[in-house]
Amino acid sequence: MRIDVVSIFPEYLAALDLSLIGKARREKLLDLNVHDLRDYTHDRHRTVDDTPYGGGAGMVMKPEPWGAALARIATESPVSNAPLGDKPILIVPSPAGAVFDQEMAYELAEAQHLAFACGRYEGIDERVLEYASEAFDVRPVSIGDYVLNGGEVAVLAMVEAIGRLIPGVIGNPESLIEESHSDGLLEYPVYTKPGTWEGREVPEVLLSGNHGKIARFRRNKQLERTATRRPDLIVQLDASTLNRHDRDT
Ligand code: ADE
């Protein structure tokens, strides 16, 4: 997969050199390019913002540097250059976007080319999104109902959630199957050695070697946790994913 990120703080994205995403880059599973928006300005001060038309607080990101940066990325896209290719996807992190979740992560992990436009200040001139939609499938996306100072932290979260779903990025793909949100439920609690720690015992069933009982114990914990911590997820559950024993729980 190719990923391009445009930001006025490219240093923020340095964390994408670490851990599994960094390894995926080195192994060429992920071709990740970070661009400094100021490289697409032409004035001495490398200006990227200006006052809002209509008045109001704060500054708005100017359209020209964005237009130039996105046009360059579109030209380099392996998708739009392919015969009969679809458009690459441009994600615009914004608290006013559709909320990012595991389902969206799975969908985006299938893409060949993702670009991220990190806004700062009061946001990017709206015409940039219209212009970009000629070359990209443009999607404003929020990582939750709270306000960050810019899109960079949201991009770190999204790239990690998407990147780990790319085949080969996670050593043991089994771990993707049992984690939170993969089946609409939160994951069960886990324990390791020692068996007794600070006077607390590991649940006995996990030492029993009875795989059926262990599976039932874990499933019950998933249901219990989800019901107490995230009742909204229980309401959304597709009844067909519940088994007979779940219904008795
Ligand atoms: N930029 C500012 N707040 C944001 C949020 N909640 N999600 C994505 N991008 C943002």
TrEMBL record:
Subcellular location, record wording: Cytoplasm
GO molecular function terms noted in the UniProt entry: tRNA (guanine(37)-N1)-methyltransferase activity
Enzyme class: transferase
Protein name: tRNA (guanine-N(1)-)-methyltransferase
Function: Specifically methylates guanosine-37 in various tRNAs.
Classification via SUPFAM superfamilies: alpha/beta knot
Family annotation (InterPro entries): Alpha/beta_knot_MTases, tRNA_m1G_MeTrfase_C_sf, tRNA_m1G_MeTrfase_TrmD, tRNA_m1G_MTases_N, tRNA_MeTrfase_TRMD/TRM10
Primary localization: cytoplasm
Enzyme nomenclature, EC number: 2.1.1.228
Record-linked NCBIfam families: PRK00026.1 (NF000648), trmD (TIGR00088)
Source species: Paeniglutamicibacter psychrophenolicus
Keywords noted in UniProt: Cytoplasm, Methyltransferase, S-adenosyl-L-methionine, Transferase, tRNA processing
Domain tRNA methyltransferase TRMD/TRM10-type: 1-235
